[in-house]
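Task card 7
Instruction: Convert sequence to structure tokens.
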Amino acid sequence: MSRKLFTVGPVDVAPDTLAAMDKPMITHRSKEYKQLHASIEEKLKEVLDTNYDILMVAGSATVLLEGAARCGISKKSLGLTSGSFGDRSIEVATTNGKQVDVVKVPLGKAVKPVDIEGKVAKDTEAVHWVSNESSSGVYCDSVALAEKVREQNPDSLIMIDSVTSMFAMDLQFKKLEPDSVVFGTQKALALPPGLAFAAVSPRFFEKAETVQNKGFYADFTKLKEKNDENYALTTPPVSLMYGVDYQLDKMLKEGMATRYRRHQEMADMVRKWAKEKLQGIFPEEGYQSNTIGVINRGDLDFDKFHSIIKSKGMEISNGYGAVKNSTFRIGHMGDLTCSDIRNLLDVMDEALEEMKE
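Output:
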């Protein structure tokens, strides 16, 4: 049975977007491919309001998170975490032989500048964190964190996982001045999984030139060499790239300010419902994600609740990590609209009523 996805990812892909990928195959060493590659990078720069190089690699975003760790850190970094995916970013670095100092805050809380006071040492080569923690629904103030990092060590690279915030929440690139920002296709870009991106600063590439053992597949220096020619280092998912090009046109037509506002409105609707019908949203006030609603389920039988929702043609997500059994998650991102969310909430109301019978 086909269902409309209100999941954390992969997310719902619109029929017109799927149709945009149904084009004849081209080789990735052709003139046509170069035009497609260049078009995507140009539009991404416009959407993100940046002049950074934007690298593209077949795979999930994790492959470029690993690439950032291997290429931007020789020995030591500082990892900030408020949940499962912050923990993963630290694991990515440590399993690649890096020494990672850790700042960890309680689940449901955001890492704040005060938490990293005195933590960024002279030998801290990079500080990395997740802008939008999808296990807890926490969105941190990356601009404030970046300013605190630079205050302590202006040479430290700033490396951000923006997988569930990019294209839905304004990262304010000009103020943020990050060095690597990683994201993928299967979240707010509203496409199938399979393509990862990294927006990379000039000083990151300078650092990468000095780092040893960067590997091959996600070596940022090799990727840049090919990217400068509008080619990929290894075979890219061309059909998916057609979808990316199409989706970026849709974003530019909608306007990014309008897109950010739509995500805010959808998130507000879910928060209001959670407060009225259950026990509210899990993350702390002022740091709540606009793409993922993590809802306190209380004594709700989620499996039964979700079964009813799925029988009505919709799907949401279970909780994740340490709060898997006490929360559930709603993805409100991508091409979803307030009307879609209203329909979901109506179905969820119906499910709650059915469970009373």
